Amino acid sequence: MKLRAKEADPVARTVAEIDRKSLTVPWICFLIAFFVVILYFNSLGNQFTNWDDSMIYQNASVRDLSWEGIKKIFKLEQGNTYQPIRMLSYAIDFKYWKFNPLGYHVTNILFYILTCIMVYFTLLQLSINLRDKVSKDSHRRVAFFGSLLFVAHPVHVEAVTWLAARKEVLQGFFFFLAFYLYLKGRDVKDRERWVYFCFVFLSILFAILSKPSAVVFPGVILIYELARGKEGLKSFLKNHWFFVTASVMLSVIFVFILAKVMFEAGGIKPYRGATIASNVLVCVYAFLENIKSLVLTINYSAAYAFSVSMPVFRLRNIVVILITLSLFAMGFLSLRRTRVILFSLLFFLIALLPYLNIIPISTLKADRYVFIASFSYVLILGIAFDRLYVYQHKKFSKGFFRLLSVALFLFLLVGYSLITIRQNTIWENSYTLWADAVEKHPQSNTANALMGVVYMELGMDRDAVKYLEKAVELLPYDYQSRNNLGIVYGKLSEPEKALKEFDIAMRLRPDDDMIKINVSVFYQRQKEYGKAEKVLRYLLSNGPQNANLYFRLGLLFKDAGQYDKAVSELLKSVELAPDIINPYIELGNLYATRMNNLEKAKYYYTKGIEAAPKAKSRIQDLRWMVQDLER
Questions:
Q1: Which one of 131, 399, 436, 479 is least enclosed by Cβ atoms within 10 Å?
Q2: Residue 379 and residue 351 in contact, taking contact as beta carbons nearer than 8 Å
Q3: pLDDT for 122
Q4: Residue 26 and residue 32: Cα distance in Å, rounded?
Q5: What is the spatial distance between Cα 121 and Cα 181, in angstroms, rounded to a whole number?
Q6: How far apart are the first and last CA of the chain?
Q7: Comparing C-alpha atoms, which of 183, 181, 172 is closest to residue 147?
Q8: pTM of the prediction?
Q9: Rounded-to-integer distance, Cα 213 and Cα 193, Å
Q10: What is the DSSP string of 121-147?
Q11: CB 415 within 8 A of CB 381
């Protein structure tokens, strides 16, 4: 029996309400926000992972929200990443949530909601500007379909659920806000246009300060103008030269900052395959791998490993290169009929440029790399579903393709949603995260290195060695894993192996004082107190105001039975860092258990309580100790 349009499925009629503007802007924003909360609600119970430690758990700079603390966050320091907006957001979270991961997850989800809302508005405006021969309802459907698919896509789980990836959702919000404002303000009158452009400039500055990869924004503007083609790229540059120049200069400045930071932190790696040609091939593979992450939504992982066939001129490599060239040829050939395909392809490429290993970096592939780039994918999907929605054929009833479009859209949306909800559980804690990664990608250096750290924290040193050895086998210049191997070998009474790994780690990162401190701890465990002291004295000669080094010396002398020296060094630590509780505790313990002076023990325990009122759990323990001493 022939299906009449008015008897179409209720779901199709619901989506058709968009045509009649029943979904106002506030309702669409509410729907996006509600959908995000439903999808990521099960991530709220996730804990910090050992991938969050350096950014949040062990980062002293996020614990100070005073004016001095904020100035320090925005100060460029050697060896540190420069993402002050992200650091500031952590400092705000810490003020209210301390070390409760729930609050940090709430903030991540909030900024993801804002990002998705801006994706909706940007899709709508982009469709209006690049698609001339369609109705207003078509533009709204493209934005509606595309934004919901963006919300649900499981490749975004890493960016939302991983707390240290806060930079992605911050950058996403400011990046799409800047792009939307540019699309809105480009064709308005001069004075109003400059107001728009000022806000565009400010938004992209915030995006770069959230994550420096947003320096590609001027490239996005240029490819948009190329796709639009109404007045020509040359004319655009002539009429908007000041805005273009300011944007490019901003990007150039931060490219230099990013290169400096990466170089100082060891983020720039040797060419893979040792030649420029082989590294270009790596770029091509990385490009296709990121497309695969969007299209083939299976086996997402916190760490990946994929191989590049060498030498360069092999059949597999030639096929890969031809596929890539064909994609771009298709994009340029489509320019006459539909500008959106070329724009989407070039947007994807521009957004991925910082991650394609043109300048070699440590990680070839990560889900977070396609967070911004996935915009082009949902744009294409939104247009595809819209075209199917309005398609008609005389052999089919009027509502058939409308129903088919909605059914296929919902099938994809539900599929993405289920994978996203499941993927959130993998990020529950460090063990679940890296056990999954090692199972899926056993040849990943990152997965093995951090699985080794998990076992170190659990005290399962033999298991830790297995994964750490695999990590350095896969990536010999992984100084952190070599440092961890040195620690574990020391605990397992294998001193020769321990010293060998420490030596390699120090040669790889001679400026990393933490490795040297670990060497001192190793000598201390071996009861070679003179060698341990020599290492700490060397570090103090370069940093005489380092309270932690005096604290380490105090522990060393305590272990060596030189209690007066231990007290002297601990007092120096207290003088330099009077608000740190650990030296007071050690002084109290020394007087109580080793020097038999209970009055001084009580004095230092009390000083510790006064000095660090925010360390509530430690203070309660000290209060019990003081009460025991008073009996």
A1: 131
A2: no
A3: 96
A4: 10
A5: 10
A6: 93
A7: 172
A8: 0.86
A9: 26
A10: HHHHHHHHHH--SS-HHHHHHHHHHHH
A11: no
